[in-house]
User: Which sequence fits this backbone?
């Protein structure tokens, strides 16, 4: 080896060492929380802890320069390795050097430092914080990083990467799940975080009280009759029918009815005490509705479909329950939506959300065309089922247990043994649906 070869080898080793440090730093800085970093800075007051807190508080300031540096060093190290191999061994040496470089780089500069940083996040963060802070504060690197990000924004219009880093909803849910498995957070905290994340995607149709379950005061009811209805069902607010039973004139408050009753006006029409009510579309996001309820100081809204028909009502309590779970007071009669029977079957309320049922049973029921279990059964059969009529899907049998008019109130879910499963069950139902549709078209 000549003197030039030795200097190239030294440069390769130095680059590898720097990449080791940057790999550990990248993993540690992305794993440590802002609260933890600030707590370390306040507890120790050391310069590494303060640097760590500054970096974690503003990740957008270090992530892009760090990635640019790693890319440059990786490219430079591979380039120098190729030059050295060619000088020493010729063309054959390039192939051998390529294989060796991949193995050495992966083990030394990727796997080992990142694994160590995962196992010792705080130590790795404190050990590398000042180095990374000095690196990202280097003016030429910041200029180059901003220029490359600007080029990226030109090639990929939109929000760009200058506001990054970005984390998708699924990635965030994965982080929460991993934290719960590592016992970093409690199970209840995990459920609350997941509820908050999913809250933004929930619409009024998914949490409303459907029209058949609404308790509505008749249009011609008296104050006494309206009060009796409110007391019987334990509600403080009730919608009141308009002249057309398909319409809602407004809502009446139980306290207004009580006051009128105490004043001897029990025979007056409840319509005289009606108050205005908000009407909202069924696809309105619940998060936005709850903010409007807080700002407008109203607790109940009527949900209408795109044709103006009344499809349900939603309360502030319904919105809160999406975040914290069911709220049951001493006057509520809590009915179990899902009951596990001794023989392994489930009795499930037809109004249970398909998404929740999929999570409970680890099933894969489709939810593109319907929201509830009853909707799945009704939509799959394409007619109102008779009690006992069933559908098989994904290793489960879904049978209508209780049908009230056109509504499926209770469904029995039975797990199928492997020898009982019809491998063609889903295909058979799809084929029957296609044949019925073909027959309808032929008849038309």
Assistant:
């Amino acid at each position: 080896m000549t003197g030039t070869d030795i200097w190239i080898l030294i440069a390769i080793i130095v680059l590898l060492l720097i990449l080791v440090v940057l790999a550990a730093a990248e993993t540690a800085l992305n794993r440590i929380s802002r609260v933890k970093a600030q707590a370390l800075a306040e507890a120790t007051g050391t310069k590494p802890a303060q640097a760590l807190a500054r970096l974690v508080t503003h990740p957008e300031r270090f992530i892009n320069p760090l990635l640019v540096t790693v890319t440059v060093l990786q490219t430079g190290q591979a380039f120098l390795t190729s030059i050295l191999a060619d000088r020493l061994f010729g063309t054959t040496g390039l192939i051998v050097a390529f294989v060796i470089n991949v193995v050495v780089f992966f083990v030394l500069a990727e796997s080992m430092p990142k694994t160590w940083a995962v196992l010792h996040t705080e130590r790795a963060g404190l050990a590398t914080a000042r180095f990374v802070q000095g690196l990202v504060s280097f003016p030429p690197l910041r200029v180059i990083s901003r220029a490359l990000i600007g080029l990226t924004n030109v090639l990929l219009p939109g929000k760009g990467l200058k506001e990054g880093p970005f984390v998708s909803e699924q990635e965030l849910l994965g982080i929460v799940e991993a934290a719960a498995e590592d016992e970093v957070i409690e199970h209840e905290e995990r459920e609350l975080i997941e509820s908050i994340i999913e809250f933004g995607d929930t619409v009024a149709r998914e949490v409303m009280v459907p029209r058949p379950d609404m308790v509505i005061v008749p249009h011609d009811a008296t104050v006494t009759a309206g009060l009796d209805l409110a007391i019987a069902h334990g509600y403080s607010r009730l919608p009141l029918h308009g002249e057309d039973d398909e319409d809602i004139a407004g809502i009446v408050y139980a306290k207004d009815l009580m006051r009128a009753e105490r004043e001897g006006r029990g025979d007056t029409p409840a319509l005289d005490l009606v108050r205005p009510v908000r009407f909202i579309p069924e696809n309105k996001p619940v998060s936005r509705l709850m903010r409007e309820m807080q700002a407008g100081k109203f607790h109940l809204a009527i949900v209408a479909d795109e044709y103006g028909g009344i499809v349900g009502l939603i309360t502030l309590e319904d919105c809160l329950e999406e975040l914290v779970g069911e709220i049951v007071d001493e006057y509520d009669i809590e009915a179990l939506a899902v009951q596990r029977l001794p023989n392994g079957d489930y009795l499930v309320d037809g109004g249970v959300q398909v998404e929740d049922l999929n999570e409970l049973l680890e099933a894969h029921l489709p939810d593109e065309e319907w929201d509830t279990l009853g909707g799945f059964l009704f939509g799959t059969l394409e007619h109102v089922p008779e009690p006992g009529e069933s559908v098989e899907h994904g290793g489960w049998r879904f049978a209508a247990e209780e049908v009230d008019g056109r509504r499926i109130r209770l469904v029995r879910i039975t797990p199928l043994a492997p020898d009982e499963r019809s491998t063609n069950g889903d295909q058979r139902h799809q084929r029957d649906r296609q044949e019925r549709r073909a027959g309808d078209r032929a008849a038309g």
